[in-house]
Structure formats: C-alpha cells, structure tokens
Specification:
- This protein is an alpha+beta fold.
- It contains ten helices and 19 strands.
- The strands form three sheets. It has a seven-stranded mixed beta sheet with strand order 1-2-3-4-5-14-6. The protein has a seven-stranded mixed beta sheet with strand order 8-9-10-11-12-7-13, with helices on both faces.
- It starts with a strand and ends in a 12-residue tail after the last helix.
- InterPro entries: Acetyltransf_17 (IPR041380), Acetyltransferase_Eis (IPR051554), Acyl_CoA_acyltransferase (IPR016181), Eis_dom (IPR025559), GNAT_dom (IPR000182), NAcTrfase_Eis (IPR022902), SCP2_sterol-bd_dom_sf (IPR036527).
C-alpha cells in the first residue's frame, strides 16, 4: 500500500473514494458550487492506494485559523474527509494515513491541528482530544416568554433586528461571523472561498434560510440567527452575536415567531444564560450535548506559548505521545499573561497524554476533571487546582463551524 499526496487532477477519484467509504453518493455540483466538498484543498489531501493501484482511503485538511484564549489567532489545519473502504478496514490503512498526515503537518510548521469526529472512539489514539462541546436547546413556543430582570439596571438593547433572506445577505453574514470568531476562543475562520462556493452547512451553504440580522445603535450588523421552519418547528442553524445582549435580542425574535410549536437552537455554548432568561426555567430542554472541536498538539512548547494566559504560576508537565512515540517534560511558566515553556529534568506536577493536553488546551475542560477521571495524574496537592486556574479562558470555548 502507498500513501501519496493528491493534486487537483485527483479530485474526482478522491471524492468518489471518500463517498464509497461512507456508503454515500456525491451530490451533483452546479458549476462547482453548493456541495460541502467543493472547498477541498487538494494540495493537502492524501490518497491510500492498494498494491493493485486501487484507491482505498482518503484524508484531507483545510487551512483555518483557530482563536485561542487571549484572542490569539493561529494556523490550524482542519482534518477532514478521512475514510477507508469497507474492504480495507482494520488493515492499518487509517493508521498509516494519520501518521503520514501528522508528519506532513509538522513539516509545514503547524503547531496543532483540529477535527470534528464522526465517532468518539476513533481519534483519541492519534492524539486528538475533545476540546469544545455544544448543546441543542429546545423551547416550546407556548412557554418561550422571556423575563429579563431589571435588578442589575441593564439598559434595553439599543439595536434593531430585521428579517432577511439568506440569498440577500451572504456578505453581511461573512462580515459578522469573521468579527465574532476573532474574539471567541475555539472558533474557526471561514475562508472567503467557502462563502463564495456555498460549501459546508447553512448559513454558509446557500440553502433557503431566513436570517434575523441584528444591528447596533449605529446600524452596524453585529449578530445574526439563521433559521428554517418546517412542520411547525423552527430550527436555528447557528446564532452569532457580539455579546449576550445581542444574543438575547435574536433569541427573542425567533422565540416570538408565529405558527411555531417549538424552537430548536442547534448550537448553544454550554452554560449559556438563555435558559435563565426564560420566564419558565423548565421550558428550555437541553439535549444532545456533544463534543465538537477536537485538538491535537504537534509542537507542545509552541502551542502553549501561543495562547493567552490569565493567571501567573508554573507547572512541570510530563507529556506522553504514544502514537508518535515521544515522551517529553516541560516547565511551563506564566507571568503577566505570557508563557515560557522549556525542557526540564524537574519532577512532574502533572503527567498526561497529549490527547488530554489537547482537551484542556482551550480552557473548556478543567484539568481537575481529567484528574478525577483518571486521565491525568497529579503528583502533588494543589497541582490540579493551579492547572485549572492557568488553563482557563476568558470565556468558554465554542466552535460553530462544521467541516
């Protein structure tokens, strides 16, 4: 078996092999637009070829930026299109592709990579850890009244909301999303090419949607909710908002829609205050809390020194990377929001697998949780609590982008 890089000439074979691996058939693109795979970057693809010349596996990556705590933007290849034909599973094809891909990413100088996992048991063995999660929130329309307390003296939203068709406001959505993702830890960029091709899921895809667009007091767009109504269920694809006030205004718009039995928010950050804003606290039903973005560190010192930090302190991290056969020990020192990470012979404060380091990297998973789960070993009292304080983010990480 051979693992080789792909070119634009391999697109049809790559797409056919990938779809066959998942038992699917490719949609027919309209002049190259409107299908989720139209934004593939074939210079980042891999094709596994059997000895007889047949393609049997695929793996690819997109070129994204990831927002880290501290509003730091870093390159983050988004691993995608990973599949092996049923005839060649459990023969080492996936492992060979993933090893080759990690080597290629390192050769490009990339410090980390990300993915969305189709199954939760696949990618941990390759060093990926779940770093963000998302919730589905369902609210019955007849119990959807908001009751916003005035005890804190908050001013009413000075902005406005208008309803547009997706086809009429694509450029505005791109603009609003790009400003949002630059401030939100865990968010990924959406390259211009995605919007131009309509690649991905709504509202990037050009499927019919209504959009509640929020503008601030100066008329500048600063939030939107993309939604569709079918069988008296209003489903919100995603809500992008500059702050909680904007989110509340958009939620109020869709929750007040006529001829609706229930409203489903597909992607709500864990711990979001919307449930507390409902007059009936029990009305908001949280369902399908799921992992979303998985993170894999490729260069531990560079990844750790890239993000922002909000507490001073130091920890010795003993990091095991069994898939790449590496074991390293680092002294992480944080002062005034900046980290230094160097090799050390000091005894460890924490011992952990690189996948668990990926899980805590964005601040969404407390280190102490993984200590209690038996994933991370704390070697001294107080080490887990210090790590919790060090790794926290300014706000919970959340990723909306599907790839």
């Amino acid at each position: 078996m051979d693992i080789r890089s792909t070119t634009d000439q391999d697109l049809d074979v790559f797409v056919d092999t990938l779809h066959a691996a998942f038992g699917l058939f490719p949609d027919t693109p309209v002049e190259g637009r409107g299908v989720w795979w139209s934004a593939f970057e074939m210079d980042r693809g891999l094709l596994a070829v059997a000895a007889d010349g047949r393609p049997v596996g695929t793996a690819g990556a997109y070129s994204f930026e990831l927002t880290l705590p501290g509003e730091v933007l870093v390159p983050a290849p988004g691993v995608t299109a990973v599949g092996v034909l049923p005839t060649h599973r459990r023969q080492g094809v996936l492992t060979a592709m993933m090893r080759r891909q990690l080597d290629d990413l390192r050769a490009r100088g990339e410090a980390l990579s990300v993915l969305l996992a189709s199954e939760a048991t696949i990618y941990g063995r390759f060093g990926y850890g779940p770093a963000t999660c998302t919730e589905r929130l369902t609210v019955p329309r007849h119990r959807a009244a908001l009751a916003l307390p005035r005890a804190c003296g908050a001013d009413p939203d000075p902005g406005s909301v208008e309803v547009l068709r997706r086809s009429a406001c694509g450029d505005l959505l791109e603009e609003v999303y790009d400003r949002y993702r630059r401030r939100q830890p865990g968010a990924l960029s959406r390259p211009r090419r995605w919007w131009e091709l309509g690649a991905g899921q709504p509202p990037v895809a050009e499927a019919p949607r209504h959009v509640a667009l929020h503008r601030d007091a100066d008329g500048v767009p600063d939030g939107y909710a993309s939604y569709a109504l079918a069988d008296r269920v209003l489903t919100v694809d995603e809500t992008v908002a500059a702050d909680d006030t904007v989110f509340t205004a958009l939620a109020g718009c869709v929750l007040g829609h006529d001829l609706v039995e229930k409203v489903v928010f597909r992607h709500v950050p864990p711990g979001h205050p919307l449930r507390w804003q409902l007059a009936d606290h029990r009305a908001g039903e949280v369902g399908s809390v799921t992992d979303w973005l998985w993170v894999r560190l490729l260069d531990v010192p560079r990844a750790l020194t890239s993000r922002g930090w909000f507490t001073d302190g130091e920890l010795v991290l003993d990091v095991d990377d069994p898939f790449l056969g590496e074991h390293t020990r680092h002294l992480l020192t944080v002062r005034d929001g900046t980290a230094d990470c160097v090799p050390t012979d000091r005894g460890p404060d924490l011992s952990l697998d690189v996948r668990d380091l990926g899980s805590v990297y964005l601040g969404g998973t407390p280190v102490s949780t993984l200590v209690r789960a038996g994933h991370i070993r704390a070697h001294r009292p107080g080490a887990a609590a210090l790590a919790d304080a060090l790794f926290r983010a300014e706000r919970p990480p959340h990723c909306l982008h599907w790839f």
